[in-house]
Design goal:
Mean pLDDT: 96
CATH topology: Phosphatase 2c, domain 1
Radius of gyration: 19 Å
Number of helices: 8
CATH architecture: 4-Layer Sandwich
Number of strands: 15
Order of helices and strands: EEEEHHHEEEEEHEEEEEHHHEH
Distance between the termini: 18 Å
Length: 322
């Protein structure tokens, strides 16, 4: 784990937005860490279209390590890289997300020469929203609340994973103590120049790669919300516990911003001596899938489903982490 403070910084930086189709909230907290290395980007209309059925939204979370520069750069540039790609303009969103991740990675090395930092990246592209595309590199994570049940929209990239390990070794690296070259606890990231120096290999086959895995979900109308968060949350709660926490908060009429702030408080360790869990920077975001409803109607819809136990039986309370 990283260095920690004597007391946590619990100030929360929170924001929200909405349009006819989606409502989002995001909050981040430094916690016990000596600096804040997370970043995010929340965009309801990537192209500036006025028609709600033509909008493309993009939501992304970046968890930095070894400094904050890579995460800040990715938050400022990933969406611009994406919107400018021919693959994006042609409607090939799967390819476009891959291209955007790799371009952002390359641009970071070109424009921020010598910076050693890196970051995870998990980005959700919602097309009007008929489909949800989630691209992931690293161990931040996205989960869909589908009729109250948690559907993973990404899977963590850890050095111990069979396929990840094979790429690392083939590129000349090794895994020790569950870390790339005994150092990095994740195996895909933007930045991390020291693991991408083999000029004979493609960007996708380096020891650490920014090449994202992409999951596509066809919207059916049962979707309630989408979550994107960094591992400061997932180290403490399972996918289903997170969906339960959010769903119960919605049923209680809490603002999305309040839910984001409360889940981080729920995950904050009471002290920094318990092995790192609950001591990381935290970023949590939730995107409400309004499905043709107003925000108020959406709240009532989710509340009714929770109370009548339609779909997943959401518990009254989420067990404490500590």
């Amino acid at each position: 784990m990283g260095q920690t403070l004597s007391e946590p910084v619990t100030t929360k930086d929170t924001a929200a937005g909405e349009d006819e189709a989606l409502a989002w909230a995001v909050s981040n907290m430094q916690g016990w860490r000596i600096s804040m290395e997370d970043a995010h980007q929340m965009i309801l209309d990537l192209e500036g279209n006025s028609k709600s059925d033509e909008k493309t939204a993009l939501f992304a979370v970046f968890d930095g390590h070894g400094g904050s520069e890579a995460a800040k750069f990715a938050a400022k540039r990933l969406h611009l890289a994406l919107a400018g790609l021919d693959s994006y303009k042609a409607g090939d969103y799967r390819q476009a997300l891959k291209d955007a991740f790799l371009k952002t990675d390359t641009d970071f090395f070109t424009e921020v020469d010598g910076d050693p930092s890196g970051c995870t990246a998990v980005a959700a592209l919602l097309k009007a929203p008929k489909q949800i595309y989630v691209a992931n590199a690293g161990d931040s994570r996205s989960v869909l609340g589908l009729k109250g049940e948690a559907k993973p929209m990404s899977f963590d990239h850890k050095p111990g994973n069979k396929d990840e390990n094979a790429r690392i070794v083939a590129a000349g690296g090794f895994v020790e103590f569950g870390r790339v070259n005994g150092n990095l606890a994740l195996s895909r990231a933007i930045g991390d120049a020291e693991f991408k120096r083999n000029s004979s290999l493609s960007a996708e086959t380096q020891i650490v790669t920014a090449d994202p895995e992409i999951i596509v979900h066809d919207v059916t109308g049962e979707e309630e919300f989408l979550v994107l968060a960094c591992d400061g949350i997932w180290d403490c709660l399972s996918n289903q516990q997170v969906v339960d926490f959010v769903r119960r908060g919605i049923a209680q009429g809490k603002e999305l911003t309040t839910i984001c702030e409360e889940i981080m408080t729920h995950c904050l360790a009471p002290d920094s001596e318990i092995g790192g869990v609950g001591c990381d920077n935290m970023t949590f975001s939730v995107v409400a899938m309004l499905g043709g409803r107003t925000k108020e109607q959406w709240y009532s819809w989710v509340k009714e489903r929770v109370e009548k136990k339609i779909g997943w039986d959401t518990p009254e309370e989420i067990a404490p982490v500590f």
